[in-house]
């Protein structure tokens, strides 16, 4: 499959700080690609390089085969919803959308604007000024602004932040519709469940370096089935000190135990039964959340810096 | 190009639809013409015609009677308009009521102090002390030969001017009489010859007749350049000034990043500048059209230097682009409104420079100083235009060289601002210093 975005040995520095370090990545056309990583890890810088807002210090960034350096206009085929949103407050919603559509070379976008406003339940807000909208509504308007010109590549940085579950579902459906229509979607998010459910592949960046890249199944396979998902009524007791268990994550309703390689899970089950009633016991892959924490958590950071 | 136009249209509409713009456009002519309107509304009632009481301490003893007679004659005739047919004459000026106050050689200052107190109390408007030797200016004590006018309303000129003229007339008349000269003969001999100021003569190309030029109006020669310069200055302020705010809004409201996803920084900036040129043209068209209508109604249209309108447009467009580019660059480099205000101050001083030089340039438009300064690009639009507007004008090559230099500077400003804009617009948290900006300009 042809690549929508291709980064080859890309490095971006700000002064002495290396924001992105020798990054190589390929986002195939038609996929939903998740970008995850802790705050300040280089996600937004990578997205801005793809958007041609920043030029890399070294390496090459290609969007649909075109090198981003030296090209005049930003790619007409890319739509971008940045993490930090902003719209002209005194402009009307319809005028705002027409402005962005025309900037992307889309002529006579009136019908398309109507269709989108209808699709995201904002039909009666078209003639209102942006400053009259709630935060969630403004976010939907900005989303339309990113996709109104029918881009082939859609870059969404934290698109669900601040949306209620109904609107989040609506936006998720719309994104998947766009993908079905042939668009490639890059989805940057801190919500691991969103990344797990929506993305065909996940790329994780940490301290400017690529630490994960592949489908969820591939990533989980790399970590093996080293996780026990359990639900135990502990009656005040803790899960500390179980034999062969090297880490415990308590999610309230259930707990995840990370076990040593070669540990006897039946022995762990027996010990658990001694501590309380076991309602659920499952040997599984680590969740993306767990993988993220293992890579970016304080313990791991200390090890990396040591 | 299409993207530049899309941005320009948005900028233009955002500016001309703003309340501030509409208020400025409507209010400015109202304010500028408020003097005329007040005159029309209140007419003569706005004139101060209350009596002015003036005490005279005449140490010479020779002036008061003649002065009092002159004041009576003035109060009876000069202060009234010519009566309209069947109507009553209307008083236009205040009466001057003179009172003689005897001097006190033992305590002269006491008298003056008492009179000062009366002026403070409002029972007197002013008082005059006429020196003992006023008729003999070669007096050994020059202080005794002077006339002193005391008042606490120094800005009211009417009384002072009348007293000065009339006392001098009386003094001269007495001196003529004492010298055995006939005062009427002397004043006839001293009558100045009238000098009219005229433009040059032309020959009509078709008829061959020589035509006299219109009488040059001194007022129009000076007022027209001043109006054009104020208009140019106002256009720079109204059109280029808001650019800094508009860039800051885009930066602080995080609109910049979305826009950069659609258009590259240089085209974005050019769009903004062209939008603002549109705004400036709108202002100028409205004001000039209004001014020309007024000039037509007052019958002075033919006296106006219409050939300057083309130059005005060129200077105005270049000035808005040149200053606008600098404002855009500064706006992109600042991180909040306070920082922008600080950065604006030196720019405002630069824009004000031509206003400070205006008077000397109008007086001597072809002096070496005026000529050299008008080639300095930041002030060329205002000062070169001023020099062109004052008859007889300046050599034809000068505005061409001036415009070329401004054009080059504008291109340079736009280029440098484009580089600062590209980097500054995405910077958050910290404003850029002058050193950063210079680095961005040079290295891109």
Tag the structure with descriptive keywords:
heterodimer; A: alpha/beta; Rossmann fold; four-stranded antiparallel sheet; 10 helices; 14 strands; 33% helix; globular; B: 444 residues; mainly alpha; D-Maltodextrin-Binding Protein, domain 2; four-stranded mixed sheet; 16 helices; 6% strand
Brief sketch in words of this structure:
The complex is a heterodimer of chains A (306) and B (444). Chain A has 306 residues and is an alpha/beta fold.
N-C termini distance of chain B = 22 Å
Largest interface: A-B, 30 and 23 residues
Mean pLDDT of chain B: 83
Q: Which homologous superfamily in CATH is the superfamily of the largest domain in chain A?
A: P-loop containing nucleotide triphosphate hydrolases
Along the chain, the helix and strand elements of chain A come as EEEHEEEHHHEHEHEEHEEEHEHH
Strand order of the largest sheet of chain B: 2-1-3-4
The CATH architecture designation of the largest domain in chain A is 3-Layer(aba) Sandwich
Tell me the number of strands of chain B: 6
Walkthrough of the structure:
The complex is a heterodimer of chains A (306) and B (444). Chain A has 306 residues and is an alpha/beta fold. Chain A is 33% helix and 29% strand. Chain A has helices at 43-50, 93-103, 110-119, 135-147, 165-180, 192-198, 216-223, 265-275, 288-296, 298-305; strands spanning 3-14, 17-28, 32-36, 58-63, 66-67, 78-81, 153-157, 184-188, 201-206, 209-214, 227-233, 245-250, 255-259, 277-284. The model of chain A has no long low-confidence stretch (mean pLDDT 85). By secondary structure, chain B is mainly alpha-helical. Chain B has two domains: 49-180, 3-Layer(aba) Sandwich (D-Maltodextrin-Binding Protein, domain 2), CATH 3.40.190; 217-443, no CATH class. In chain B, the strands form two sheets. Chain B has a four-stranded mixed β-sheet, sandwiched between helices. The radius of gyration of chain B is 31 Å and the shape is elongated. The mean pLDDT of chain B is 83. Classes of the chains: A alpha/beta (306), B mainly alpha (444). At the A-B interface, strand 6, helix 2 and helix 4 of A face helix 1 and helix 9 of B.
